[in-house]
Automatic annotation (TrEMBL):
Transmembrane segments: none annotated. The lineage of its organism: Bacteria, Pseudomonadati, Pseudomonadota, Alphaproteobacteria, Hyphomicrobiales. The keyword RNA-binding does not apply. Keywords: ATP-binding, Nucleotide-binding, Transport. Residues 5-237 form the ABC transporter domain. Signal peptide: none annotated. It comes from Bradyrhizobium elkanii. One of its GO terms (molecular function) is ATP hydrolysis activity. InterPro entries: AAA+_ATPase, ABC_AA/LPS_Transport, ABC_transporter-like_ATP-bd, BCA_ABC_TP_C, P-loop_NTPase. The keyword Ribosomal protein does not apply. This is ABC transporter ATP-binding protein.
Length: 241
């Protein structure tokens, strides 16, 4: 397996607050990795640093061996990193398909090319049948999948998913887990922020744990949930894997 992304000694401060502190990890191609930790641990800041939305105070981000932390988000996106946001806000006056096309305009100006990529993205998240629906007719899980389809339309190699299962019922989340597993089987690399440990255990083959901005554990989910540091800082003594 090849390494797609390397985060090396990454730090980011906001004034006196160190939000991400000397964090290193790498992502293997085709694997699903979860980034977990309590509120304020630095997960979203890490995402923003990888996606080019924030510049690191120190450290480096390498994608396919090239340093990307000085590149703007549009360049990072064109290189193959796409992200979704915690709060999903589709363009309400546009159809599901038109929303999914937005991502494709990062690499083409050809409308029919964008439309065909958008269909393919909607198909891979199970939304093709609703391509012509209005976005206000979508359920919350569908809106989350539309956000994912929009990101897929950019043709990413790495997909960053910020709390894509938040607010969903277990059966709805199970559907999304299936979609993510299929995407990874197709070769996509996924880094996801997720709070529900049951989902992390099911979907991720590797877990990185942040606490107060620093990495406190990393490994397969079964190992990480048994780590005393993780139990103490995040999961609590009552957690049973
Ligand atoms: N733009 C900013 N300006 C100042 N402080 C910030 C900024 N962004 C994040 N922070 C602070 O950095 C720390 C890490 O925040 P971050 O959002 O990365 O955590 P998180 O792990 O994603 O939390 P959550 O699970 O609540 O989303 C927090 O203390 C937060 O208040």
């Amino acid at each position: 397996m090849t390494t797609l992304l390397e985060v090396e000694n990454l730090s980011r401060s906001f004034g006196g607050l160190v939000a991400v502190k000397d964090v290193s990890f790498s992502l293997r191609a085709g694997r699903i990795t979860a980034l977990i930790g309590p509120n304020g641990a630095g997960k979203t800041t890490c995402f923003n640093l990888v996606a080019g939305a924030l510049k690191p105070t120190s450290g480096r981000v390498l994608f396919e061996g090239r340093q990307i932390d000085n590149s703007p988000p549009e360049t990072v996106c064109r290189m193959g990193i796409a992200r979704t946001f915690q709060i999903v806000r589709p363009m309400r006056e546009m159809s599901v398909l038109e929303n999914a096309m937005i991502g494709a305009f990062s690499w083409t100006r050809n409308v029919s090319e964008a439309r065909s990529k958008a269909y393919e993205s909607l198909e891979s998240v199970g939304l093709a049948a609703k391509a012509h629906a209005r976005t206000d007719q979508l359920t919350l899980p569908d809106r989350k999948m539309l956000e994912t389809a929009k990101a897929l339309s950019t043709r990413p190699k790495l997909l960053l998913l910020d709390e894509v299962m938040a607010g969903l019922r277990p059966t709805e989340a199970a559907g999304i887990v299936g979609v993510l597993q299929k995407l990874a089987e197709g070769g996509l690399t996924i880094l996801l922020v997720e709070h529900v440990m049951r989902i992390v255990m099911e979907v991720a083959s590797r877990v990185v744990v942040l606490h107060h901005g620093a990495k406190i554990a990393e490994g397969p989910p079964g190992e990480v949930v048994a780590d005393p540091k993780v139990l103490e800082s995040y999961l609590g003594a009552g957690f049973h894997a």
